[in-house]
Fold this sequence. Notes:
By secondary structure, the protein is mainly α. Helix content is 72%, strand content 0%. The chain has 9 helices and no strands. It has helices spanning 6-23, 28-47, 57-72, 82-106, 124-148, 160-190, 195-213, 220-237, 240-262. Helix 5 runs parallel beside helix 9 and helix 8 (220-237) runs antiparallel to helix 9 (240-262). The radius of gyration is 19 Å and the shape is globular.
Amino acid sequence: MTKTAWHPILAAALVCAAAPAFFVLDRSLLGWLLLAAGVSVAAIRERAGVTASAPSLTRDLALTGLGMVIVHAISLAAQLDDLSMLRFTLALGGAVLVPYLLSRFVFRDRAISFPWRARQRWRRWQWAWLAGVLVLGWLILPFYFITSGVYRNWPVVDTPELIARLFVGVGAVGIWDELFFICTVFALLRRHMPFLAANVLQTVVFVSFLWELGYRAWGPVLTIPFALLQGWIFLRTHSLAYVVTVHLLFDAVVFGVLVHAHNPGLLPVFLL
């Protein structure tokens, strides 16, 4: 890789480093400074001679940063009351919708898209991975949530209404994860750098968000490979439907574990 080719990665790394500043360290000023630095590096590079027909790194990083800023506008502590769920809906929805609308209708670009289905049927390995997600989740997630105590980062669900709200919330956030981290962040970064760099950087943003959401303690040991795999799978399949299915199966186990942890014996299907 030439020296010039590192400039997009440097600029994107600065922008994506704002995610741990926002969501892990809770340092808003540091996050804003990193965003400004990354976009500035991109702007300086483009002024130095990028052709007008090339995708704009400055614009794409600004859209990425804008999505993170919108998410950071609210606390990501899991709550199931009406106001909290409305707040999540507006913030997370805005983080996907605003960059998409700006890209599509203001910049007249199709950088962000949501390819729901690929033109080919799911292959054997894809069906096998769906089963693998369920088995691995069943084996690993109860141990993680219960022994680390992170299940307490989610509210107690001890009534049918609260259990239903948790089910909706976990599933909705899982779908949003793929719309934002894969179809927005990863897609924007992928236009300017090799797959590996783009995938690692989207993982930084993905895992930082999950940390504030509640996947703490040794949670990154699970969420980092999951985020990397989702980026790789999307590159292979170009199917939002498939990565969403994978995520929802994973989250179905998360939901079951949270209900089980708060109500021992209610779902006697886990080993722990």
